[in-house]
């Protein structure tokens, strides 16, 4: 099985995610028997696993490499946020909340801002270096629901819950402290990263209903196309021209996260005008999760073969 997973870019996360999503779609109550089985295999432990990965990522982050992480990914993520913000505002100004061709504004904003740090970590282990792998914590911090809420708040006042950001930063800081104060302990904890990635893939897959993706139809396909044209391509150009790198990093951060499907439900609590669009937005993101999880690793694999190995 490990050989099979390693044949695919990001396979240590994607293969468990695919198997889990198939089981969750067609046998949703299979593991709902309580106890450790339900906690481990039904996706209930997703936040615990995500927090563990953030902390382990911090354990591997030497203080001396933090500058390199921010130098490389600070520019990439800042560019991504800028382009996402411009695209989100223009979409609403041009098409309103109803959007265009069945793609609503809330679905567009949530999808175009979505980034999957978990798949990024798996891809960085396959193609990147230590700096890329250490960027997981930073990417996780900017992949919280606060980003689409912030962009929508520029159009319609929306209270921001900063605790989602704080909850990512705390385990990251603890991990950095462990890794730099006790390097032996940090190395020991980091050695379990491979297992945690597999468990994370399974937990994320348990939250994905493949049948929901079929409901997205044309709006979902349109969103995947717009995602690469408006979110990925501009950042790819920035990475190539400003950082003088191959552009793999900008693609590696560009897969939609399954957790983003729940963001519209969070937003309607303070924005009741979004209620009619929440179901459609969740379906669009679900299709985007599947589509980008296939397309981005394939693009990275192709791009990596064109030049020397590495991001």
TrEMBL record:
Q: What UniProt keywords are attached to this protein's entry?
A: Cell membrane, Membrane, Sugar transport, Symport, Transmembrane, Transmembrane helix, Transport
Residues folding into a coiled coil are none
The reply on keyword Metal-binding is: no
Task: Name the InterPro entries on file.
Answer: 2keto-3dGluconate_permease
Superkingdom of source? Bacteria
Q: Cite a single GO MF annotation.
A: 2-keto-3-deoxygluconate:proton symporter activity
Give the family, as the similarity comment puts it: Belongs to the KdgT transporter family.
Name the UniProt record assigns to this protein: 2-keto-3-deoxygluconate permease
Q: Which organism is it from?
A: Globicatella sulfidifaciens DSM 15739
């Amino acid at each position: 099985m490990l050989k099979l997973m390693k044949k695919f870019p990001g396979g240590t996360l994607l293969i468990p995610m695919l198997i889990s999503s198939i089981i969750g779609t067609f046998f949703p109550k299979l593991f709902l028997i309580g106890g450790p089985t339900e906690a481990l295999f039904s996706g209930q432990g997703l936040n615990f696993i995500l927090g563990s990965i953030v902390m382990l990522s911090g354990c591997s982050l030497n203080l001396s490499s933090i500058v390199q992480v921010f130098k490389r990914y600070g520019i990439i993520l800042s560019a991504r946020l800028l382009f996402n913000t411009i695209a989100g505002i223009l979409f609403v100004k041009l098409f309103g909340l109803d959007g265009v061709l069945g793609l609503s504004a809330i679905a567009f904003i949530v999808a175009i801002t979505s980034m999957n740090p978990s798949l990024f970590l798996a891809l960085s282990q396959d193609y990147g270096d230590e700096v890329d792998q250490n960027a997981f914590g930073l990417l996780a911090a900017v992949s919280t629901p606060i980003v689409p809420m912030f962009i929508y708040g520029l159009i319609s006042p929306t209270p921001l819950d900063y605790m989602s950001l704080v909850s990512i930063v705390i385990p990251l800081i603890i991990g950095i402290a462990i890794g730099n104060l006790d390097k032996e302990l940090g190395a020991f904890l980091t050695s379990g990263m491979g297992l945690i990635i597999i468990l994370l893939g399974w937990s994320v897959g348990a939250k994905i209903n493949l049948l929901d993706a079929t409901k997205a139809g044309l709006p979902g396909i349109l969103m995947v196309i717009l995602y690469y044209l408006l979110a990925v391509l501009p950042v790819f150009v920035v990475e190539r021209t400003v950082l003088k790198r191959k552009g793999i990093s900008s693609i590696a951060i560009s897969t939609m996260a399954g957790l983003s499907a729940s963001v519209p439900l969070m937003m309607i609590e303070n924005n009741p005008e979004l209620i009619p669009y929440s179901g459609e937005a969740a379906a669009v993101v679900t299709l985007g999760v599947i589509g980008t999880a296939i397309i981005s690793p394939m693009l990275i694999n192709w791009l990596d073969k064109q030049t020397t190995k590495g991001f």
